[in-house]
Amino acid sequence: MGSIHWARGDLRRRAEEALKMVGLWEWRSEWPSRFSSGMKARLKLAELLLYDMPILVLDEPTVHMDPASCMEVWKVLRRVAREEGRTILLTTQNMEEAEYLCDRILMLNRGRVIALASPDELREYASREDRIRIVLAGGGVEGFAKALEQLEGVFSASARGGVVLIKAEKGSLKPREIIELASRLGCEVKSLSYERPTLSEVFRIMVKGGGGDQEV
User: Fold this and answer.
1) Given this model, what pLDDT does residue 118 score?
2) Does residue 45 have a pLDDT over 90?
3) DSSP class per residue in the chain
4) 45-84: b or e for each residue (b if 16 or more CB lie within 10 Å)?
5) What is the pTM of this model?
6) Where are the domains of the chain?
7) What is the dihedral of CA 76, 78, 82, 88, to 10 degrees?
8) What is the mean pLDDT of residues 18-45?
9) Residue 117: what are its φ and ψ, rounded to 5°?
10) pLDDT computed for residue 196 by the predictor
11) 169 closest CA partner among 126, 127, 120
12) Would you state the pLDDT for residue 97?
């Protein structure tokens, strides 16, 4: 293997940039043995950033970190990927991390590939039903929910406060139908949105559905 030789000034500059990127510059004089687990993980990331490598391979880079530290590292990695053009390969069990950072996700279950796609493609593939969230202005929520349940393709409609959550057969219920029904019942729709499954839900659906060795 070859070795990398830097001038002292260049090494100092790179070290300063890397420590600032991971939020450890103010602790530069501390011994790493006194760092928390999260700080040690960030220090390892800084060590990787010292080298101008086109591909970074990271194994659970934010494990043991608190949510605030996780977000700091995610922002660094996203900047490294998008502004510096580096490719990042990472393993993670944190689906929020995967969604924030990854353009493509490979899901494994018991050593087998069950999916390979972008986050949006995974959610679309795993969406077996439409989940619609409706916020009403005013009353009539309970009656509106009961009326929705009578529509063809609707599995359930639950009311909570001024919000109605609908589960329906995919593509069976159009927004115009919902708004027209609300109008007939004297209800005013304040907002209507489609909720997508989280990546954790996608994983459970893919495992339950027996997906394997395929690209979505």
Assistant:
1) 94
2) no
3) -------HHHHHHHHHHHHHHTT-GGGTTS-GGGS-HHHHHHHHHHHHHTS--SEEEEESTTTT--HHHHHHHHHHHHHHHHHS--EEEEE-S-HHHHHHH-SSEEEEETTEEEEEE-HHHHHHHH--EEEEEEEEESS-HHHHHHHHHTSTTEEEEEEETTEEEEEEETT---HHHHHHHHHHTT-EEEEEEEEPPPHHHHHHHHHHHT--S---
4) bbeebeeeeeebebeebbeebeeebbebbbebbeebbeee
5) 0.67
6) 8-102, 129-195
7) 100
8) 85
9) -170, 175
10) 85
11) 127
12) 94
Dist. CA 50–CA 166, nearest whole Å: 51
Spatial neighbors of 82 by CB under 8 A, at least 6 apart, are none
CATH fold of 8-102 reads Rossmann fold (3.40.50)
Amino acid identity, residue 12? R
CA 1 to chain centroid, in Å, comes to 37
CB 73 within 8 A of CB 22: yes
The tokens 């490598």 sit on which residue?
53
Q: Do 8-102 and 129-195 come out as alike in CATH topology?
A: no
Neighbour tally for 115: CB within 10 Å: 24
CATH number, domain 129-195: 3.30.70.100
User: Residue 55 is which amino acid?
Assistant: I
What's the token pair of residue 129? 């039903």
Residue 85 has pLDDT above 50, yes or no: yes
In the prediction, which pLDDT does 209 show?
Answer: 67
